[in-house]
Request: fold
Amino acid sequence: MSSDRIRRVRGASLAWLLALLPAFAVPQAALASSHREAPEVRKDPTADDTDIYLFRDPVDTSRVVMIANWIPMEEPAGGPNYYNFDPAARYELKFDNDGDAVEDITYRFSFTRNVRDTNTFLYNVGGITSITDTDWNVFYTYKVEKVLGPSVTASGANVTTIGSDLIEAPANVGPKSFPNGYEVVSNGALYLSIDGGVRVFAGPRGDPFFVDLGMTFDLINLEGRALAPFGFGVNDLAGFNVHAIAISVPIDQLTANGSTPTATSDPNAIIGAWAATYRQATTILTVNGGAPIRTGGWVQVSRLGNPLINEVVIPLGLKNQFNGTEPKDDAQYASAILDPEVPKLFKLLFNIDSPPAPRNDLLLLVQGLDGLTKRPGEVISDQLRLNVAVAPTPIASVNRLGVIGGDNAGFPNGRRIYDDVVDIELRVLAGELVSGFHNTLGDSVNGPDLPFLTSFPWLATPHSGFHHLHDHPSYPGLGNAPLPLTARVAQYKPDGTPYAPEPYMVLENQPTLDRQQ
Reply:
C-alpha cells in the first residue's frame, strides 16, 4: 500500500479507531454496552445484563418504560434447547426516587420451566398458534414481585406478588412453527394491566444495540474496514437476539411523593434506575444428571446502569467486584471516572487533546446533569437518571445524539432505544461538554438492523431461527468473502425508515474525522 493510501485510510478510519480504543486498552471489554463486559459474568450469559433503557413513553406520556436485556450474542437458531431466562436466577429492575442510590421500588422476576412431554426432544411438536397452544412443548412462566426498600433484605409486607403464572414469549423458531405469524403468539405474552396499570413483557427480542465489534478483535483491523469491499461500519450485533424484560409504569407510581411532576426543577421529577441479577450463594452438582442443589442467600452477580461505566471506565481488576457491589458504594470507583484511561490513549496514539484530569465533566455519568437529572445531595452512583417532567420527543423528531444533539429527552436523560450511545460517549470522553473540545467522533453504525415497534414492548420482533442475517453475510461457497455494499443488512432510523449506508469519509490532513449528525 502506498504511503499516500495509508494516510488516506488513517484519516478515514480515525473515528473508528477511537470508537474501539476501549477494547484495545481492556481486552475483555468492548464499547458494546454490557455484552460480555466482565471476566466472570461472560461465563454466565443468562445472568449477564447487556443493556437497560429508561424513557418516558412517547405515545402514552403518562408512563415510564424500563427495558433490561440479558444473554448477549443470542443466536436465533440455537435449538432445540432455545435460550430462556434462568429459573435459578432472580432478575430485578430497580428504581431510586430520592437520590440516595438505594432502591426504593424493585420489580423482581422469577421464572419456572415447564415441559409438557419429556419423551420428545422437540421444543414444539407442531405449529404454535397461541400463547397457550399445547403444541408448544417447552415453555417458561414467571411471577412478578413488587419490593419496597432494599430488595435483598425485604420481607413480609414489603414484598407483594403482583403477577403470577405469566408466560415468557417463545423463541422465534421459524415460520412453519408459527403458521399465523410469530407476533400473533408473542402478543399473548403482553400483560397490560397488573398492579394498577403496570404493563410487563418477558421474552426474546432483536438486539437493539448497534456497534462494530469484529474490527476490534481482529487486531483493530482499520485498514480492512476502510477499504473495499467494506468501506462502511458493520453492526456486529445484527441478526442476534437478546432476552428482554420490559415494564411500563404510570409515572405517579415511581416518584417519591406519588405525583406526576410538570416542572423539571422539581426534585421529585427525577428517578434513577438500574438492573441486577442474583444467584444463590451455593450450588452443589449431583451425579447422573440430577438437578443441582442450590442453597444460601441471594448474591448479586451482575448489574447495569449506564452503558459505559463497567465497560471502559472500571479497570479489569475491579470488574467482577463492580458487578457484585451496589450503586450506593460507587464512590470507591470515582478516581477511574475523574482520570479515565481512554482519553490518555487518544493523546498517546494520535496526539488528540482531551480535557485534563480531574474530569469533573464526566461526573454527569454518576451524579446527573445539573438542571436536568441531578437532585440536591445526589449520591455518586451508576444508574440511569430520568427527569420525567421533560416531554418525550415525538419519534419522528428524535435526535440520536440525545442531549448533546439538543434533544433533552434522550441520553443521558434516561436512555431511549434510539439513542446512539457509542457516538455520544465517544464525544463526551473526548471532551464534548468542555469548552474548546468539540468533536464529531462516531462509528458509522447509527441504528439497529430491525425497526423498533411503535408501542410497548418497543423492541423489535426477534430474529427467526429459520432465517436471519448477520451484518455482513458471505457469498455461498466463498468462505468469508463479503457481499457488496448493496447487500449489507439495513440500519433503521427511529421512524422505521432505513439509513443510507454511511461510508468512511476520506479526508486529507484532518486530525479527527468529521461525521454527519
User: Anything to note?
Assistant: Residues 123 and 452 are 27 Å apart (CA to CA). The chain has ten helices and twelve strands. Residues 3-487 form one domain.
